[in-house]
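Weekly modeling sync, notes
Attendees: S.R. (lead), two postdocs, one rotation student

Agenda item 3: backlog of single-chain predictions. S.R. asked that every request posted to the team notebook include the full sequence so nobody has to chase files. The rotation student volunteered to paste the first one in as an example of the format we agreed on. Action items at the bottom.

Example entry:
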Amino acid sequence: MPTSEKSSCKSSNNSNNNNNKRLVVKKLFARQQHEGFGAVVRRSIGRFELRYFDPFLVLDEFSVSSPAAGFPDHPHRGFETVTYMLEGEILHEDCEGHKGVIREGGLQWMTAGKGIVHSEMPSSNANGITHNKGLQLWINLSSKHKLVEPSYQEIESKDIAEAEKDGVRVRIIAGEWNGVKSKICTRTPTMYLDFTLSPGSRVSQPIPLHWNAFVYVLQGQGHFGDARSQHSTAATHHLLILGLGGDRLEAWNSSDSGLPLRFILVGGEPIGEPMVQYGPFVMNTQEEIDQTIDDFENFTNGFEKARHWKSQAASTLGLF
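Predicted structure, as returned to the notebook:
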């Protein structure tokens, strides 16, 4: 069975000596599209305008209704998936025997490594929940980590580190804020912060100088970077790419509506290696992709247990 991550973790230290703001250099609106089995996603990274933002492969804001929609049995190799539930809950199952429910506010950080086949579907025991919404982020792995054993880090909502100061509330998914650290270890050094700013409040968040970073707005409207910048104002479902050359993001809730501003700030150390993607497989060369397809089709080199496996959700819905 995949194990919880215990080692090979790199610190996502957010401090440096520069004193410049990060500016917004690109703004994208995440439009709805259909994915999986009756699911709807708003994809902001991994679309034609932004195929790859090293080390980030995909960012989806997903929405699935119970019980007949979701993401049934499918494979992964060569990267990590981070699932963060905003509403409702999702049942996760894999071919290695790992099974669990990711509930509202909870987190699953899955290292697919050398290979996993799994499903992500609404829980059949959702106690009347009919709408399930969350974020899924795909983070690339360096060549030395692409074929590690699959593993999971799972944190319930009540156990996610939180902090609050001067009208700013932060949930620390990865990295740290104001001295409060996440429990998550990251193979690819990553920060992932969920900010909620009350009306009129602002935050200045350090970002390592050479890391790529972005903002995705979940609720409300705010200013990011420099108010004089062309793309500085953004509202719900917008992705903001932050330029290099600065060591911090400044953001403030500028809405006149009296509503909070909620957004995620995600940053990561670029891997800087060749990347070849074929759907759910991400490797460094086309030859490695060809080998991965062969391994998956022949149930070898990490996919052995997928030969006779079908998820409970797929069986119940009569899929495959």
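Discussion: group reviewed the output briefly. The CA atoms of residues 173 and 192 lie 5 Å apart.
Action items: rotation student to repeat for the remaining queue; S.R. to check formatting next week.
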